[in-house]
Amino acid sequence: MESTQVAATAQIINKDQLLTHWLGHRKVTRRALEAFPEKELFEFSIGGMRTYAQLTKEMLAMDGSTARGLATDDWGTFDEEKTELTTKADLLASYDESTEKIQNYWKDISMEKFQEKVVAFGQYDGTGYSILFYIIDNEIHHRGQGYVYLRALGITPPNFWEQY
């Protein structure tokens, strides 16, 4: 009986380790953003894909807002256009602000919220943890597109394994 109870309460990682994992990915994504030349950040694409600036704006629309949504149930509006972000410096500053938002809201996310059913941005229906994993996976996916762009531009992207 005791071993069943222990197995039911064991976990692979804790909440703070999950945050560290997410922030590790964000550090690599930020370095990829830094690697882009200004002009190409807003103009270069391959095969009809969006520019890395557009991809970054999508990430910015979701990341800090997801932390806020999980902490407060206020998901806000989904604005991936972010027309006010017109320079690389703007994108980097917004990225840093978003990371601060994540860190500030994280302490207010209950462990129970990760298991609850939530509807993020009025369209993503799942559990708290599945929404968070989607946000992290989406960032990794878009960073991968950015890596292809950087390689096509003759720029070596940052090492993805250097997260911490």
UniProtKB/TrEMBL annotation:
The keyword Metal-binding applies. The keyword Signal does not apply. One of its GO terms (molecular function) is metal ion binding. InterPro entries: DinB (IPR007837), DinB/YfiT-like (IPR034660). Keywords: Metal-binding. Gene3D superfamilies: dinb family like domain. SUPFAM superfamilies: DinB/YfiT-like putative metalloenzymes. A divalent metal cation binds at H142. Belongs to the DinB family. This is Putative damage-inducible protein DinB. The lineage of its organism: Bacteria, Pseudomonadati, Bacteroidota, Cytophagia, Cytophagales.
